[in-house]
Amino acid sequence: MTAEPAVSQRPSPPRRSTLTGTGPAARTRKSVLWHASAIAALLILLYPVGWLISASFKPADEVLANLSLLPHHATADGYRQVFSGVAGYSVWHYFGNSLLVSAGAVAGNVLSCSLAAYAFARLHFRGRGPLFGFVIATIMLPQHAVLIPQYILFQKMGLVNTFWPLILPKFLAVDAFFVFLMVQFIRTLPRELDEAATLDGCGPLRVFRHIILPLLRPALITTAILTFIWTWNDFLSQLVYLNDASKFTVPLALQIFIDQTGQSAYGPMLALSVLALVPIGLFFLAFQRFLLEGAAGSGLKG
Question: Helix or strand or coil: residue 244?
Protein backbone atom coordinates (compact mmCIF):
# COMPACT_ATOMS: atom_id res chain seq x y z
CA MET A 1 0.00 0.00 0.00
CA THR A 2 1.15 3.46 -0.87
CA ALA A 3 0.58 6.24 1.61
CA GLU A 4 -1.71 8.93 0.41
CA PRO A 5 -0.01 12.33 0.15
CA ALA A 6 -0.96 14.74 2.86
CA VAL A 7 -3.32 17.42 1.70
CA SER A 8 -1.85 20.84 2.40
CA GLN A 9 -4.29 23.16 4.01
CA ARG A 10 -3.84 26.87 3.66
CA PRO A 11 -4.47 28.77 6.86
CA SER A 12 -7.65 30.75 6.66
CA PRO A 13 -7.23 34.52 7.04
CA PRO A 14 -8.08 35.77 10.48
CA ARG A 15 -11.48 37.25 10.90
CA ARG A 16 -11.65 40.89 11.69
CA SER A 17 -13.52 41.52 14.82
CA THR A 18 -15.29 44.71 15.66
CA LEU A 19 -14.27 44.13 19.26
CA THR A 20 -10.59 44.70 18.43
CA GLY A 21 -11.27 47.98 16.63
CA THR A 22 -10.18 46.79 13.16
CA GLY A 23 -13.50 46.37 11.39
CA PRO A 24 -15.25 48.85 9.10
CA ALA A 25 -17.72 49.82 11.81
CA ALA A 26 -14.89 50.61 14.22
CA ARG A 27 -13.09 52.72 11.62
CA THR A 28 -16.31 54.62 10.96
CA ARG A 29 -16.78 55.31 14.66
CA LYS A 30 -13.19 56.55 14.94
CA SER A 31 -13.67 58.83 11.93
CA VAL A 32 -16.89 60.28 13.33
CA LEU A 33 -15.28 60.77 16.74
CA TRP A 34 -12.24 62.49 15.20
CA HIS A 35 -14.36 64.87 13.11
CA ALA A 36 -16.63 65.65 16.04
CA SER A 37 -13.61 66.44 18.22
CA ALA A 38 -12.12 68.67 15.51
CA ILE A 39 -15.40 70.57 15.08
CA ALA A 40 -15.72 71.01 18.86
CA ALA A 41 -12.16 72.35 19.09
CA LEU A 42 -12.84 74.70 16.17
CA LEU A 43 -15.96 76.07 17.85
CA ILE A 44 -14.04 76.65 21.07
CA LEU A 45 -11.30 78.54 19.20
CA LEU A 46 -13.78 80.62 17.19
CA TYR A 47 -15.99 81.51 20.14
CA PRO A 48 -13.96 84.61 21.16
CA VAL A 49 -14.11 85.91 17.58
CA GLY A 50 -17.84 85.30 17.43
CA TRP A 51 -18.36 87.03 20.77
CA LEU A 52 -16.27 90.00 19.60
CA ILE A 53 -18.34 90.45 16.45
CA SER A 54 -21.59 90.09 18.39
CA ALA A 55 -20.47 92.44 21.18
CA SER A 56 -19.60 95.13 18.64
CA PHE A 57 -23.32 95.41 17.92
CA LYS A 58 -24.35 95.61 21.59
CA PRO A 59 -25.03 98.80 23.55
CA ALA A 60 -22.34 99.79 26.04
CA ASP A 61 -24.42 98.74 29.08
CA GLU A 62 -25.09 95.32 27.53
CA VAL A 63 -21.51 94.34 26.68
CA LEU A 64 -20.66 93.10 30.17
CA ALA A 65 -24.20 92.28 31.29
CA ASN A 66 -25.09 90.06 28.32
CA LEU A 67 -22.47 87.35 27.72
CA SER A 68 -24.51 85.50 25.10
CA LEU A 69 -23.61 85.66 21.44
CA LEU A 70 -26.86 87.29 20.36
CA PRO A 71 -27.41 90.93 21.42
CA HIS A 72 -30.77 91.82 22.95
CA HIS A 73 -30.82 95.26 21.35
CA ALA A 74 -28.57 95.32 18.29
CA THR A 75 -27.10 98.68 17.32
CA ALA A 76 -24.43 99.96 14.94
CA ASP A 77 -23.59 103.06 16.96
CA GLY A 78 -20.09 101.78 17.63
CA TYR A 79 -19.30 101.53 13.92
CA ARG A 80 -20.81 104.96 13.27
CA GLN A 81 -18.61 106.50 15.96
CA VAL A 82 -15.53 104.81 14.52
CA PHE A 83 -16.16 105.97 10.97
CA SER A 84 -16.95 109.48 12.18
CA GLY A 85 -13.33 109.80 13.38
CA VAL A 86 -11.09 108.89 16.31
CA ALA A 87 -9.19 111.65 18.16
CA GLY A 88 -9.72 114.03 15.26
CA TYR A 89 -8.47 111.64 12.56
CA SER A 90 -10.29 109.32 10.21
CA VAL A 91 -10.15 105.61 10.91
CA TRP A 92 -8.57 105.15 7.47
CA HIS A 93 -5.69 107.35 8.66
CA TYR A 94 -4.81 104.80 11.34
CA PHE A 95 -5.24 101.93 8.92
CA GLY A 96 -2.89 103.69 6.52
CA ASN A 97 -0.26 104.08 9.23
CA SER A 98 -0.52 100.42 10.18
CA LEU A 99 -0.33 99.39 6.54
CA LEU A 100 2.77 101.53 6.01
CA VAL A 101 4.56 100.09 9.04
CA SER A 102 3.54 96.51 8.21
CA ALA A 103 4.53 96.80 4.55
CA GLY A 104 7.92 98.24 5.49
CA ALA A 105 8.51 95.46 8.02
CA VAL A 106 7.53 92.81 5.45
CA ALA A 107 9.88 94.26 2.83
CA GLY A 108 12.73 94.47 5.33
CA ASN A 109 12.35 90.94 6.66
CA VAL A 110 11.94 89.36 3.23
CA LEU A 111 15.03 91.08 1.83
CA SER A 112 17.42 90.91 4.79
CA CYS A 113 16.48 87.49 6.15
CA SER A 114 16.70 85.87 2.70
CA LEU A 115 20.19 87.31 2.13
CA ALA A 116 21.36 86.23 5.58
CA ALA A 117 19.88 82.76 5.13
CA TYR A 118 21.58 82.37 1.74
CA ALA A 119 24.93 83.30 3.27
CA PHE A 120 24.55 80.80 6.13
CA ALA A 121 23.24 78.00 3.93
CA ARG A 122 25.44 78.28 0.83
CA LEU A 123 28.48 80.52 1.33
CA HIS A 124 31.63 79.39 3.11
CA PHE A 125 33.33 81.92 5.36
CA ARG A 126 35.25 81.87 8.61
CA GLY A 127 33.11 81.64 11.70
CA ARG A 128 29.93 80.71 9.85
CA GLY A 129 28.90 78.04 12.35
CA PRO A 130 29.40 80.05 15.56
CA LEU A 131 27.84 83.12 13.99
CA PHE A 132 24.77 81.17 12.92
CA GLY A 133 24.50 79.69 16.40
CA PHE A 134 24.68 83.19 17.88
CA VAL A 135 21.89 84.35 15.55
CA ILE A 136 19.68 81.41 16.54
CA ALA A 137 20.40 82.08 20.23
CA THR A 138 18.87 85.53 19.91
CA ILE A 139 15.46 83.85 19.52
CA MET A 140 15.56 83.23 23.28
CA LEU A 141 16.37 86.88 23.99
CA PRO A 142 13.21 88.69 25.17
CA GLN A 143 12.25 91.88 23.39
CA HIS A 144 12.15 93.82 26.66
CA ALA A 145 15.87 93.18 27.23
CA VAL A 146 16.87 95.26 24.20
CA LEU A 147 14.00 97.76 24.23
CA ILE A 148 15.75 100.43 26.34
CA PRO A 149 19.10 100.31 24.45
CA GLN A 150 17.27 100.50 21.14
CA TYR A 151 15.18 103.43 22.35
CA ILE A 152 18.29 105.34 23.48
CA LEU A 153 19.93 104.65 20.12
CA PHE A 154 16.98 105.88 18.09
CA GLN A 155 16.52 108.87 20.40
CA LYS A 156 20.12 109.99 19.77
CA MET A 157 19.48 109.58 16.03
CA GLY A 158 16.37 111.76 16.29
CA LEU A 159 14.05 109.03 14.99
CA VAL A 160 11.66 108.77 17.93
CA ASN A 161 8.04 109.60 17.02
CA THR A 162 8.67 108.40 13.47
CA PHE A 163 8.03 105.09 11.73
CA TRP A 164 11.75 104.38 11.24
CA PRO A 165 12.36 102.60 14.57
CA LEU A 166 9.62 100.14 13.60
CA ILE A 167 10.86 99.54 10.04
CA LEU A 168 14.63 100.10 9.97
CA PRO A 169 15.63 97.12 12.21
CA LYS A 170 13.79 94.75 9.88
CA PHE A 171 16.35 95.52 7.16
CA LEU A 172 19.11 94.21 9.45
CA ALA A 173 17.84 90.59 9.72
CA VAL A 174 17.02 90.90 13.41
CA ASP A 175 14.25 88.25 13.31
CA ALA A 176 16.30 85.07 13.75
CA PHE A 177 13.23 82.86 13.39
CA PHE A 178 12.80 83.79 9.74
CA VAL A 179 16.54 83.41 9.08
CA PHE A 180 16.35 79.89 10.49
CA LEU A 181 13.22 79.11 8.48
CA MET A 182 14.85 80.16 5.20
CA VAL A 183 18.12 78.39 5.99
CA GLN A 184 16.21 75.15 6.48
CA PHE A 185 14.39 75.70 3.20
CA ILE A 186 17.53 76.50 1.20
CA ARG A 187 19.26 73.40 2.54
CA THR A 188 16.58 71.27 0.86
CA LEU A 189 17.47 72.71 -2.57
CA PRO A 190 20.03 70.67 -4.58
CA ARG A 191 23.49 72.20 -4.72
CA GLU A 192 23.84 71.09 -8.34
CA LEU A 193 21.76 74.12 -9.32
CA ASP A 194 24.29 76.45 -7.72
CA GLU A 195 27.23 74.60 -9.30
CA ALA A 196 25.65 74.72 -12.76
CA ALA A 197 25.01 78.44 -12.45
CA THR A 198 28.60 78.98 -11.24
CA LEU A 199 29.96 77.13 -14.26
CA ASP A 200 27.92 79.47 -16.45
CA GLY A 201 29.72 82.43 -14.90
CA CYS A 202 27.26 83.49 -12.21
CA GLY A 203 28.57 84.98 -9.01
CA PRO A 204 27.01 84.52 -5.56
CA LEU A 205 24.56 87.40 -5.98
CA ARG A 206 23.40 86.22 -9.41
CA VAL A 207 23.00 82.68 -8.10
CA PHE A 208 20.89 84.04 -5.27
CA ARG A 209 18.79 86.22 -7.56
CA HIS A 210 18.18 83.82 -10.45
CA ILE A 211 18.37 80.39 -8.76
CA ILE A 212 17.68 80.53 -5.03
CA LEU A 213 15.21 83.41 -4.81
CA PRO A 214 12.59 81.97 -7.25
CA LEU A 215 12.69 78.59 -5.47
CA LEU A 216 12.47 80.31 -2.08
CA ARG A 217 9.01 81.73 -2.78
CA PRO A 218 7.04 79.58 -0.28
CA ALA A 219 9.38 80.52 2.56
CA LEU A 220 9.32 84.18 1.51
CA ILE A 221 5.53 84.24 1.55
CA THR A 222 5.51 82.51 4.94
CA THR A 223 7.84 85.20 6.25
CA ALA A 224 5.66 87.92 4.72
CA ILE A 225 2.45 86.56 6.27
CA LEU A 226 3.84 86.13 9.78
CA THR A 227 5.67 89.47 9.69
CA PHE A 228 2.52 91.26 8.55
CA ILE A 229 0.39 89.69 11.29
CA TRP A 230 2.93 90.28 14.06
CA THR A 231 3.60 93.87 13.01
CA TRP A 232 -0.07 94.70 12.53
CA ASN A 233 -0.88 93.44 16.03
CA ASP A 234 2.22 94.89 17.69
CA PHE A 235 1.38 97.29 20.50
CA LEU A 236 4.40 97.67 22.76
CA SER A 237 6.94 98.87 20.19
CA GLN A 238 4.48 101.25 18.58
CA LEU A 239 3.47 102.61 21.99
CA VAL A 240 7.11 103.27 22.88
CA TYR A 241 8.18 105.01 19.68
CA LEU A 242 5.00 106.81 18.52
CA ASN A 243 3.79 109.75 20.59
CA ASP A 244 1.80 111.89 18.17
CA ALA A 245 -1.82 110.90 17.46
CA SER A 246 -1.27 111.63 13.78
CA LYS A 247 1.20 108.72 13.64
CA PHE A 248 -0.86 106.27 15.69
CA THR A 249 -1.53 102.83 14.24
CA VAL A 250 -4.66 100.73 14.75
CA PRO A 251 -3.48 99.14 18.06
CA LEU A 252 -2.73 102.59 19.45
CA ALA A 253 -6.05 103.92 18.20
CA LEU A 254 -7.78 101.19 20.19
CA GLN A 255 -6.28 102.38 23.46
CA ILE A 256 -7.81 105.83 22.88
CA PHE A 257 -11.19 104.35 23.80
CA ILE A 258 -9.86 103.05 27.15
CA ASP A 259 -10.51 105.68 29.82
CA GLN A 260 -8.43 105.48 32.98
CA THR A 261 -11.52 106.39 35.03
CA GLY A 262 -13.27 103.22 33.90
CA GLN A 263 -15.70 104.84 31.49
CA SER A 264 -14.39 102.94 28.47
CA ALA A 265 -16.22 103.29 25.17
CA TYR A 266 -16.83 99.60 24.57
CA GLY A 267 -18.92 100.01 21.43
CA PRO A 268 -16.36 101.88 19.28
CA MET A 269 -13.48 99.90 20.76
CA LEU A 270 -15.03 96.55 19.85
CA ALA A 271 -16.11 97.84 16.43
CA LEU A 272 -12.56 98.96 15.65
CA SER A 273 -11.26 95.61 16.91
CA VAL A 274 -13.47 93.81 14.41
CA LEU A 275 -12.30 96.09 11.61
CA ALA A 276 -8.68 95.48 12.59
CA LEU A 277 -9.16 91.74 12.06
CA VAL A 278 -10.32 92.13 8.45
CA PRO A 279 -6.92 92.88 6.81
CA ILE A 280 -5.25 90.04 8.70
CA GLY A 281 -7.96 87.57 7.67
CA LEU A 282 -7.83 88.63 4.01
CA PHE A 283 -4.03 88.52 3.95
CA PHE A 284 -3.99 85.05 5.47
CA LEU A 285 -6.72 83.65 3.20
CA ALA A 286 -4.95 84.96 0.11
CA PHE A 287 -1.62 83.28 0.94
CA GLN A 288 -2.48 80.37 3.25
CA ARG A 289 -1.50 77.77 0.62
CA PHE A 290 2.02 79.20 0.44
CA LEU A 291 2.17 79.35 4.23
CA LEU A 292 1.66 75.59 4.46
CA GLU A 293 4.16 74.94 1.67
CA GLY A 294 6.77 77.09 3.36
CA ALA A 295 6.32 75.39 6.71
CA ALA A 296 6.52 71.95 5.12
CA GLY A 297 9.56 72.72 3.00
CA SER A 298 11.53 74.33 5.79
CA GLY A 299 11.50 71.30 8.07
CA LEU A 300 8.95 72.76 10.51
CA LYS A 301 6.33 70.10 9.90
CA GLY A 302 5.63 67.59 12.62
Answer: coil
Distance from C-alpha of 154 to C-alpha of 244, rounded to nearest angstrom = 16
Contact 175, 265 (CB under 8 A): no
Residues in the chain where the model's pLDDT stays below 50? 1, 17-19, 261, 298-302
Position 9 scores a pLDDT of 56
Neighbouring residues of 175: CB distance < 8 A, sequence distance ≥ 6: 109, 113, 227
For residues 253 and 268, the answer to whether their CB atoms sit within 8 Å is no
- Cα 240 to Cα 24, 164, 213, distances in angstroms: 60, 13, 35
Question: Could you report the per-residue pLDDT of 222-281, keeping only the tens digit for each?
Answer: 899 899 999 999 999 999 999 998 999 999 998 888 765 455 678 888 899 999 999 888
- Name residues whose C-beta falls within 8 Å of residue 231's C-beta, 6 or more positions apart in sequence: 101, 102, 105, 106, 166
Sign of CA dihedral 101, 230, 160, 165: negative
| Structural domains of the chain, with CATH | 26-78 (no CATH), 88-297 (1.10.3720.10)
Query: What's the pTM?
Result: 0.81
